[in-house]
Amino acid sequence: MHVILADNQAIFCAGVVRVFLTDPAISIVAQCEDMEQLLEAVGSQQHSIVIFPSSMPSDVHGLLDHIQKAESRSVMILEHEATLDDSVANRLDGVVLRSVAAPQLVDCLYRVTAGERYMQRALVKAMPSPDHAGAKAAQRLTSKELQIVALISEGCKNREIATQLGTKEQVVKNHLRSIYGKTGVSDRLELALFTVHHQALAEVVESTRLALVRTG
Q1: Rounded to whole angstroms, how far apart are CA atoms 48 and 115?
Q2: 117, 145: one domain
Q3: Same-domain status, 145 and 107
Q4: What CA–CA distance (Å, rounded) separates 213 from 193?
Q5: Are residues 14 and 74 in the same domain?
Q6: What CATH number should be reported for the domain holding residue 89?
Q7: Over its length of 216 residues, how does the chain's per-residue pLDDT go in tens digits?
């Protein structure tokens, strides 16, 4: 299945891409950061599954018209505490929450590809519970460790991280062992997914990433 992934949250995108790369049946044909890129991708990559956040399009119905014209299918990522109008919901092929777990997202794609509608109606109006685990992890990680988490979420390898932070690769490996212990994960993929699914940590990591971009 061909997927067009549109989102302006870099950490979430990185986590989703890592998940999709583990499934040979899923091929990401375009990644878009804004509506202009998304509309261009929808027009050029027909018969795709278009994943986009509820916060991106100012005219949702207009976007859905483009997707329908391209004979593609639509999956909306519903932002935290957002509401979904029935007129929009009835046109979507799938709806998942921003906090969707990786297996659920993959299951959504398979169901939508098979012609089913994946609508988490029971979850649409649910309020997110306090992210104690994410907040605790954010407090335990040092500023250097947060920088490494941010770069891991961007898909950087240890050597690239060491170069960007002006340190040695072995030092990065030592930091990673500490990060894994503090977050309770065992590898880079789990770390990226843990960050994506814990809003409190994701927000701190995103701020760290933006600071790195400004100083880089």
Answers
A1: 13
A2: no
A3: no
A4: 22
A5: yes
A6: 3.40.50.2300
A7: 999 999 988 888 888 998 898 899 999 999 999 999 999 999 999 999 999 999 999 999 999 999 999 999 999 998 877 777 878 888 999 988 888 888 888 989 999 999 988 875 444 444 445 678 889 999 999 999 999 999 988 778 999 999 999 999 999 999 999 999 999 988 887 888 788 778 889 889 989 988 888 876
Closest alpha carbon to 17 in 200, 160, 155: 155
Specify the long-range contacts of residues 206-215, CB closer than 8 Å, at least 24 apart: 206/9, 206/10, 206/11, 206/150, 208/143, 208/146, 208/147, 208/149, 208/150, 209/10, 209/11, 209/150, 209/151, 209/153, 209/154, 212/147, 212/150, 212/151, 212/164
> Does the predicted model carry a pTM greater than 0.70?
no
